[in-house]
Structure to design on (125 residues):
């Protein structure tokens, strides 16, 4: 059974940093594109970052960094200079690697087959 579990969400002050984890079981993340999305109350789901199976990364903002640890079968989202508008539930999602697709494809939440339950990030003083 394929499963994704996020962790690392927390309450952090503005300007702070946080690292979220997305651990997979039942499949290997290095054969999948793994993306992070977020959703704040009353707002639509928003793309945050994606790491393709090939290792190409596409973060929505320069202060987001996404990386993979194959040995741990985990993808990390490192966020810096967090602001109150970053407050949201953060979800990771995975899709079996597909060749020949560009950033626009991977930013579409509808392409992802597996989703985690989400982890809450709150940025507040």
């Amino acid at each position: 059974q394929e499963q994704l579990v996020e962790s690392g969400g927390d309450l952090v002050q503005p300007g702070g940093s946080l690292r979220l984890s997305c651990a997979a079981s039942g499949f290997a993340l290095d054969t999948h594109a793994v993306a992070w999305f977020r959703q704040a109350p009353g707002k639509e789901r928003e793309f945050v970052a994606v790491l393709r199976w090939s290792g190409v990364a596409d973060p929505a903002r320069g202060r987001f960094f996404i990386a993979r640890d194959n040995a741990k079968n985990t993808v990390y989202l490192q966020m810096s200079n967090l602001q109150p508008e970053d407050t949201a539930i953060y979800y990771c999602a995975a899709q079996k690697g597909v060749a020949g697709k560009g950033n626009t494809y991977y930013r579409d939440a509808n392409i992802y087959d597996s989703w985690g339950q989400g982890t809450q990030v709150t940025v507040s003083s």
Q: What stands out?
A: The chain has a mean pLDDT of 95. The two ends are 40 Å apart (CA to CA).
